[in-house]
Amino acid sequence: MAEHGGHTPGAAATTHGAHPNYWLIGIVLSVLTVLELAVTSSYVIELLNLSELVTNVALIAFALAKAAFVVGYYMHLKFDSRVYTTMFATGILFALLLASTFMLLF
Amino acid sequence: MTAHVEKHGTTLGLDHRKLGFWTFLASEAVFFMSLIVVFIIYSGRSTEGPGQELLNIPLTAFNTFVLLTSSLAMVLTIDAARRGNQRGLKFWLLMTILMGAFFVGVQIYEYRKLIHEGLTLTSNLFGMTFYTLTGFHGAHVTFGVLWLIATYIKALQGKFGPDNYIPLDVAGLYWHFVDLVWVFIFPIVYLIRW
Asked: Which CATH number do you get for residue B35?
């Protein structure tokens, strides 16, 4: 596969071969943001009888979903070389290890 | 291929600018994670002084929407460059810059208001961790806006197109990354009660 437009024909990755519907992804991200606000509104909390734990887990889940859309489609990791994914995932792994260590220490 | 083509390749067959930038973003992820964890650990330990109740959630939610939309504009910029649509490229890049500048402007307004209400860097642990985390993010957005302005000047000179859009792609990666970080900062700092 070639990395088009990047001066590296013959490269082992497709940068922008795919054409995701960016507008649709933008709408999904906006909806997820609205859902984040909804689960923290007192009206929805009372209506659904949400506990603080459920609300917080929902907020983190919405954030992770948004992050997956941004990284996968806007940053094109879903379509790019696995080397980029591995490189970034290594950083995330170190970040999570660091976070776990801090949480345990403090 | 030409010497110019080989100049940007790696033995992996990837563009070295993108590979290097993904490595940089990996290190940035560690940096922001450390700031977020410090906020989580210390913000709830503030027993005196102003705290999370001062934060303007509707305003920040709107700002979050603006930053997310700027990411959409950025990806449309790169798409336009890839298609050779110079008009679209310039329009969406300018939109990205304007939305990024708006985000920074709102953050400055928020800081001024919070400081006026008594929340400063030295007020308490919440103030210290809040300003450190959001301040570093704001600095990243500001740098991103400056980078995009420089890129826009090059775009006006017609330097990007279907055969040369990787510099735009790399700037886009940075811009999406600051958006990605905010995706976590918004719920953790503004919505979750610690």
From this structure: 1.20.120.80
